[in-house]
């Protein structure tokens, strides 16, 4: 198997990191960021969400065609990736005029929107002979293996899907859980594979490396690990771990972020809570609701919670209420 190279890396700072600043990147910040990535040899960049003009709130939360044209002129050697939510009713308008500038459209999917995603994939291929389409199965740790197999069997027959991604959106996957996931993918869905990690438990680099060994040829990273909840795989840490940087990349990245980006990491207290939740496979985005319901005893309750593929906040609350009725033993 070939060693990983810079061609296997996709930066997602502008899209996933945007959760930390509501995607309010200035054009100047975007230009500085793309220049920095180009200097590191990164050629594939997810530039944001594809939205209609009415839904657009910034250049990266909407990706107007004029913006895509501008960055293409500035960086003709780079490839742009956009993310589209299949649940958006106006998805046709959201992609109108943008496909000529994009190499890949990623469709962020739960089980409920797979059918819509496959319809969108077919439409995108009708509109562009060069566009590639990825199905990104998010919160992959919320599915049992049998459920994943069912999803793969729905995706596999489509001639319009060019890539399959597993997204560990909660950052809950443990390193030993990576190989069985991709074994399922290779058995049931013969597509190029990708992996999107979150670093909630500190496993993002190792999980990403294991995914590559299992056959993934596209790995997501972000500057300084900027991203939702526990953050993503750190670009600098990943390049360093795989000997892909000639310079002290971690120092260079920190200096760049401090000087040129308004992004800041989540509060350490929040990150501690996110990790507590992820250990039990509870989505960190439910943290505020859980704290509101259990402002004082949440940590102890979560510590006693069984690790399961919870799909909804209601499932977690039901499990916690069951715990409250039980006597407390070892973990109390």
From TrEMBL:
One of its GO terms (molecular function) is 2-isopropylmalate synthase activity. GO terms for biological process: L-leucine biosynthetic process. The keyword Repeat does not apply. Gene3D superfamilies: Aldolase class I. It comes from the Bacteria. Keywords: Manganese, Pyruvate, Transferase. This is Pyruvate carboxyltransferase.
């Amino acid at each position: 198997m070939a060693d990983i190279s810079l061609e296997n890396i996709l930066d997602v700072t502008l899209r996933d990191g945007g959760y930390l600043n509501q995607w309010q990147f200035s054009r100047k910040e975007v230009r500085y960021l793309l220049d920095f990535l180009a200097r590191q040899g990164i050629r594939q960049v997810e530039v944001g969400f594809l939205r209609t003009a009415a839904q657009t709130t910034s250049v990266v939360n909407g990706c107007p065609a004029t913006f895509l044209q501008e960055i293409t002129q500035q960086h003709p050697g780079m490839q742009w990736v956009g993310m589209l939510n299949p649940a958006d009713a106006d998805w046709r308008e959201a992609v109108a005029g943008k496909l000529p500038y994009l190499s890949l459209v990623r469709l962020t999917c739960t089980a409920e929107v797979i059918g819509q995603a496959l319809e969108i994939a077919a439409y995108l291929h009708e509109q562009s002979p060069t566009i590639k389409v990825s199905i990104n199965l998010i919160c992959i740790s919320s599915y049992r293996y049998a459920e994943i197999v069912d999803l793969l069997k729905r995706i596999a027959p489509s001639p319009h899907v060019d890539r399959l991604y597993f997204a560990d959106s909660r950052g809950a996957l443990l390193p030993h859980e990576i190989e069985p996931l991709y074994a399922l993918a290779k058995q049931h869905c013969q597509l190029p594979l990708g992996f999107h990690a979150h670093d909630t438990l500190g496993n993002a680099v190792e999980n990403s490396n294991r995914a590559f060994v299992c056959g993934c040829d596209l790995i997501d990273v972000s500057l300084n690990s900027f991203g939702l909840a526990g953050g993503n795989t750190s670009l600098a840490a990943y390049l360093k771990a795989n000997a892909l940087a000639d310079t002290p990349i971690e120092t260079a990245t920190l200096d760049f972020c401090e000087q040129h980006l308004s992004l800041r990491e989540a509060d350490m207290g929040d990150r501690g809570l996110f990790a507590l939740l992820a250990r039990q496979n509870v989505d960190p985005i439910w943290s505020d609701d859980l704290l509101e319901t259990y402002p004082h005893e949440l940590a102890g309750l979560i510590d006693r919670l069984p690790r399961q593929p919870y799909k909804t906040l209601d499932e977690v609350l039901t499990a916690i209420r069951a715990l409250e009725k039980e006597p407390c033993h070892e973990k109390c």
